[in-house]
Amino acid sequence: MQFMCSLIVVALAQFAAVCQTGPVPGLSVFARSRYCANAPTVKAGTFLDGRDLLSERTNHDPQRAPEVVTVCVPHTQVYLIMTLGIHISGNIVQSLLENAALYVLNLIVRGGDGPLHNGMFNFPGMNDVTLQVWNANNHQTTYGVLGGAIGALHDWMSNNAYGSVSFGIYDGVNQVGNGVVNGAG
After folding, report:
1. Smaller CB count within 10 Å for the chain: N or C?
2. Which residues form the domain of 174?
3. Which of UniProt's keywords are assigned here (predicted)?
């Protein structure tokens, strides 16, 4: 019986040692394993110099949705991991993103950068197409990060196809927000 108790204590001690060793804070395997679709030589979550951006299309086929794409925001460590949805015809999404970007810029000019009011941002567009963004993982999305994310989303879509999308917003290794562009179109 004493041998069995000793065996259990040794096993528990080894288990405790394994449980205490975890990932090194600040490192993210997920971020290190992704590269920016708009700058394929740059790892997502690292600083993106504007000179590294691709100027040509990546030829997303909107009929093959869903597709996951990582797009980085120039001159920041912010990036989006987007799950692409269906194509929305016309300029509805383009107009939505342009107007939302101007609205966010105006908010920053008038009141400075800061966290999203009540942790959410809802921006309606034409034909019930909306942009919605909210905080994630106990982090706060700021209007500056939101503006960069909208710009990167618009830039990527203008070179590929406008449509519905769901996305995570990352600032370095931290996911700070989630968002969607959705609606009937």
Report:
1. N
2. 25-182
3. Signal
User: Which of these, 64, 49, 60, 74, lies nearest to 160 by C-alpha position?
Assistant: 60
Contact present, 138 and 66 (Cβ < 8 Å): no
Name the pairing type of β-strands 174-182 and 130-135: antiparallel
pTM of the entire predicted model:
0.72
Number of structural domains in the chain? 1
CA dihedral angle for residue 11, residue 14, residue 20, residue 22, rounded to 10 degrees: -110
Task: Give domain status of residue 174, yes or no.
Answer: yes
Residue 154, domain member (yes or no): yes
Place of tokens 């342009």: 98
pLDDT in tens, 22-80: 343 443 444 446 877 777 777 877 777 666 666 555 554 544 545 899 999 999 999 99
Residues with Cβ within 8 Å of residue 114, at least 6 apart in sequence: 142, 143
Indicate whether 7 belongs to any domain.
Answer: no
**148, part of any domain:** yes
Identity of residue 143: Y
